[in-house]
UniProtKB/TrEMBL annotation, chains A, B:
Keywords: Kinase, Transferase. InterPro entries: ATPase_NBD (IPR043129), ROK (IPR000600), ROK_cs (IPR049874), WH-like_DNA-bd_sf (IPR036388), WH_DNA-bd_sf (IPR036390). Belongs to the ROK (NagC/XylR) family. It comes from Nonomuraea solani. This is Sugar kinase of the NBD/HSP70 family, may contain an N-terminal HTH domain. Pfam families: ROK. SUPFAM superfamilies: Actin-like ATPase domain, Winged helix' DNA-binding domain. GO terms for molecular function: kinase activity.
Length: 417, 417
């Protein structure tokens, strides 16, 4: 997993040989995960691999630090040499997720047991160059290390999963040998940490985070919609993050809802984003005579029963629900998760979403899809970065569907110096 | 693969042990496919499995008829006993696909080399019971057998893939142990042929067929829209058929395009199907003063330059294009395939689809997604049934992305007695 050669931008379907080898590695790691310490002989009996192949695989896993050897204290009776056992390295397999948003970054880390070791956030100017952002990331990561036995040890770091704003392309076809060129942040992070750096769009990663640890934990087919400064989202399809043929998927904010409507940043007109983004909602509220400079003020107005705010959110929610109904008919998710700052307006927005969804989805699907508010907050993207690493790395794969982290005390303990 | 116990309704994620075993089987079959005949020793060196495991796997594959043994004519010099080699059974691995539509059925068959051995179609009354349909299927399959060396031999049949009208549910979660109860047609076909019978929605299967052999051959992310008596479709995501969390996906015909519009058979109103189905288009044409009782007559009117027909298709195409644009933004397919009888109206319908798609899709995606007319015709569903079998069966897996069968003479040689 180490070295620039393995620094990959996106999941690459490996050749048959490396696929075979990775399958063997997963097999051995899976047995150690399940049974705990095993001798080479016991492993051999269980895995069905030849002695040569098994020893070869084990040598690599030990060299990579994924597996450690231990000598059994009590030698079996009647034998001279104590048996050596192999076990997963408890210090290995730590992974970091970093969400590089436009104006800040979020960091989270897990250990091999996939326990959250810590998380941290810090805002920055929108024009901060990548070098500065990576320095900041390094500082935040440093703040998670070195305190107590569960703390992050960078020596045990296996990989970093990174979310960035905007489209992230994969190869057009799985047969394509050419990786897309690495993103600057991948090169910078690889230079500092010397581990593979996986990268994807941060909103898509938030979808993956919610599907693994958040509001849709364990869901195999999940639609995530984020209502923030932009409107976007992501799809988890059959348990995996769906990227689309050219890295553009989950662009729910650019679905036309008002033909000939307001101009959108994407170049189109009447996109959902022109109706349901933070700015669109605040502008419409002020145009209708309301007073709010930001989402918290809008929420205060809503909570005080301001009729204009409630009427406005009712209309926005209906539009969102119509789009979600169309997508449900096409994709058939079991759970829809709504996140982003505007989701915090709660029922006055989400109830009309649910009503419009029920009205426009095929009647036969009406009681099958569940609508939920996101639970991971601003850590969703960073946790999705970790999930990306867990998906891609044979050393870390087979993460559990995981506990619901909504109540995780570490997650909610973000730092903003 | 044989026996009612393996008669499965949908793909079931197998337990770790059978998954491991299937992985070993695939490994061995893959080596024989790649290298041709190999001795047990050569296979052992290449696959990395222990002798015991390999011999065990081979015994099963030979018993299942997937692998045959042959004795090399020329013994290696200086050795007494000629080496026995193993090779894929050229007679094994034939698969049949059957598309049970409302008023007729289509049958296609392939051999292990994935060459189309034959195809046939026959209409029937809509109220023909399953027993009658299966009898008819058996007769059509019989008509494909027994002529020439490439003909279908039922003794070599590995599995049947079946398409039916309506939703086909899978397990809610991959951990669910319970298979849904088999469809009556699965029981009837299994009784007659004694092989596993896989089943899915026939429009979804047509999507898979087009993505593997048709207009989108080799495409990993494909959206298929069928404009027929109903309007539906299917999604191929990352090279696999997407089913959705509760077996309802690809229901593009029930996306609302006219809020408060005409009542739809699904129970909703203003669905795309109320605008773009055969009946909706013919009704609208006649309401506007045109004369056509069926699609061929409508096509004649279009070809003669009838202004009403052209104006009508222009409007219908625009509606379709808007829906496709929304889905492109969400899903990001590389190819959109349009099939069904109405697609045969050609440019007067497809040009406005393309214009509306370009207008409403995110500008950044505009030149990336390609719109194509389906090429497999009414055989698409049956071929998709075969593709389903090839996907699910370890004995048949790793089918090639395949040649474009649009020009295949056998495919176009359908029988209608």
């Amino acid at each position: 997993m180490r070295g620039v050669g393995r620094l990959c931008v996106m999941s690459q379907p490996p050749g048959p040989l490396s696929q075979l080898r990775r399958g063997h590695e997963e097999l051995v790691l899976g047995l150690l995960r399940k049974h705990g310490p095993l001798s080479r002989g016991e492993l051999g009996k269980r895995c069905g691999l030849s002695r040569t192949t098994l020893y070869d695989i084990l040598a690599d896993l030990v060299a990579a630090g994924a597996v450690v050897t231990a000598t059994q204290q009590e030698a079996p009776r009647g034998r001279g040499r104590p048996a050596e056992t192999l076990t997963l390295n408890p210090d290995a397999g730590q992974a970091i997720g970093i969400d590089f948003t436009r104006r800040g970054l979020h960091v989270a880390a897990v250990n091999l047991a996939h326990e959250i070791v810590g998380s941290a956030s810090e805002p920055h100017a929108a024009d901060l160059p990548w070098e500065g952002r990576v320095e900041l990331a390094e500082r935040l990561i440093g703040s998670l290390t070195g305190t107590g036995s569960g703390a992050l040890r960078l020596g045990a770091l296996s990989a970093i999963g990174v979310g960035v704003v905007g489209p992230v392309e994969g190869p057009e076809q799985p047969e394509d040998d050419e990786d897309p060129p690495p993103h600057p942040v991948q090169l910078l992070l690889h230079e500092r940490f010397g581990v593979p750096v996986l990268l994807d769009n941060n909103t898509r990663l938030a979808a993956l985070g919610e599907a693994i640890w958040g509001a849709a934990a364990g869901g195999q087919d999940v639609l995530y919609l984020r209502l923030s400064h932009g409107v976007g989202g992501g799809l988890v399809v059959g348990g995996s993050l769906h990227r689309g043929a050219y890295g553009l998927s989950g662009e729910f904010g650019h679905i036309t809802v008002e033909p000939g409507g307001a101009r959108c940043g994407c170049g189109g007109t009447g996109c959902l984003e022109t109706v349901a983004s933070i700015r669109a909602v605040l502008d419409a509220y002020r145009a209708a005579g309301g007073r709010a400079d930001d989402v918290p003020e809008l929420i205060k107005a809503v909570q005080s029963g301001d009729e204009t705010a409630l009427w406005l959110l009712d209309g926005v929610g209906a539009r969102i629900g119509e789009v979600l109904a169309a997508l449900c008919n096409a994709i058939g998710p079991s759970v829809i998760v709504i996140g982003g700052e505007l989701a915090a307006t709660g029922a006055p927005l989400l109830d009309p979403v649910e009503r419009a969804l029920a009205e426009h989805v095929m009647p036969v699907s009406r009681h099958r899809v569940r609508l939920r508010r996101a639970t991971l907050g601003e850590a969703a993207g960073a946790l999705g970065g970790i999930a990306l690493v867990l998906h891609e790395s044979p050393l870390l794969a087979r993460y559990p569907a995981g506990p619901d982290l909504a109540e995780d005390p570490i997650l909610n303990q973000t730092r903003t110096p």
